[in-house]
Structures are given as C-alpha cells and as structure tokens.
Specification:
single chain; 321 residues; 60s Ribosomal Protein L30, Chain: A; Phosphoribosyl-aminoimidazole Synthetase, Chain A, domain 2; 2 domains; seven-stranded mixed sheet; 10 helices
Amino acid sequence: MAEFSIIEKYFTSLGREHSDTSLSVGDDAAIISVPDGFEMVVSVDTMTEGIHFFEGLSPELLAHKLLAVNLSDMAAMGARPKWVTLAMGLSSHDEQWLKRFSETFDKVAKAHGVQLIGGDTTEGPLVLSLTIMGLLPKGMSMQRSKAAVGDDIYCSGYIGDAALALTKLLGEQNLTDDVFSDVLPALHMPQPQVTLGQRLLGQVSCCIDLSDGLIGDGEHIAQQSGVSLEIEIRSLPISDAYRQYLKEGGFIKYAIAGGDDYQLLFTAPQGKESTFEKMAKELDVKITKIGRVTKQGDTLVQLLDDGKPSLTKLKAFQHFR
C-alpha cells in the first residue's frame, strides 16, 4: 500500500475535530488558530521497537502508550491538549495492524479531546513519533524552575508498578502471577493525569511528569530551581501489588528510580494539604505529600528513611549511557 493510501485510509479524521483547526490532514502543512489569552505548548516523544517497546507488542497497546506519554507532558504543564502530528516508520504495510492501531489511536485521542492534524509515513524499522500541542492560559505555566525553598512535594497516583513489570518481562525477576498481572497495565497503558494538571494551575510552584523515575525527575526540578529535595521513602505512594512484592522480599528501588510512571510530581507552598485532599476526592486521583524543598546542598535529591538520611544510593534513568 502506498504512503498516501495509508494516510487517507487509516489516518484521516482521527480524534476530535476543533473549530480552531483551519486546515488538517491532506495538505503540505496544518493550520491552527491560537485564541487570545492563550499560549501554545508543544512536546514530542519517539518510541522505537526494541528500545522503548518489545517486538510484537500489540498495535492497540502501542497506540495507547504513544498518546499517553505525550498527554502526560501536557498534564505536567497544565495545558489542555488539542492537536497531534504522527510520524511513523513502518517495516511492513500490514493493513490489519494499521486498522487496529488507528482505531485505538482514534478512541484515546477522542477521549482526551485531541485531533490528528498531520504527519508522515516512511518505510523502515518500526518507529513512532508524536508531536503534541496544547493550549495554556498566558503566564500560568508550571515550570520546573519555580520550586521554592519551604515548598512541600507531592506525587499523584502510584509509582513503581511499570518498572516492576518491566523487570519480569526482562527476566530479571520472577514475580508472582498476581503481582505481575496487577502491575503490567501501568507499563503498557499508563493513565496520564491531564485533568489534574489543569486543576493544579495557580495552586503549585512547579510540576514535572514522572517518566525517568522519581530521583531523575526530582533532580531536574532541583537543578533548574537551584534547590534540593528531601523525599521520605516511607511516604512514597505504592500500590497494593507493590506492597505485596515488598512483603515477598522485594526492593523499593523501582518506585524510586524505575521510571515510566507518567504521574505528576509537583511542589506547592506549605498549607495546601486540604486543597489537594479535596481535589483528589473530586477527581478520584491519589495525591500524596512525600517531602519538602530545601536549600541547595551537595545532594540534589536526598532520600530519607523515617526522617533520617537513607543509605540507599540509586541513579536516575538515562536514555544514553
């Protein structure tokens, strides 16, 4: 099947249409309008077979995760996701694969109010690259550089499940069937906190999505804000499945440095606990206070165990080693 036939059959009119999309799929470029009082937020993520996902992973799971990791970037900025462009390297033109991928892509995109407005296809190894654009009220961004000494540190959802599932798939650990089945969805089908991100606008100092692990992304905040973070290990939000794994002799390190969580890590002035408790109930999202921001010291992210410095030494995830 030729490139233009693939685009016309499988990637036209996907997602939710927007009145501020002047020109979409089918021309040399898309045209969109940014309303007065808003800024455009742009991010891109690329997934490569054999590096970011296993060979043979279903097109449904690929479509879901590709959109989810990009939506999580919008969530971290507090932006309302609106448009995406998709570039695909395809090793074959399997029409059944394309149908399944595009149907799931359409479903997830519509659920989050996103419209596909352009892209590209080429022959080669399976590579999926998505550029996402959203709208943010001017001057309201939750940048990594705005954490302040004295702020409390919060985390949404649960962390560590995706990394724990990956250890099983890599053959590094032999998890029980119950634990593995409970943690696997976090790896393949992360749930981006888009609504929460928008509700955090005006309430928090800074925000980041947890893709590289708690230590790694915490270090990003610390470096760009010129501060240090103290995080209490015993306060980390871990799931019942992860707690069961710990009871069976497991390690907490996957919740600290594992990555692939796609939850929100954010800082806020002291005294916001009741605000976030109410927000958590309204959105049915777990929000946990896990530490505080301190003056910059020798360690960007200091782990505490019951208030005392932990001897745990973990490194952040790196894309290039």
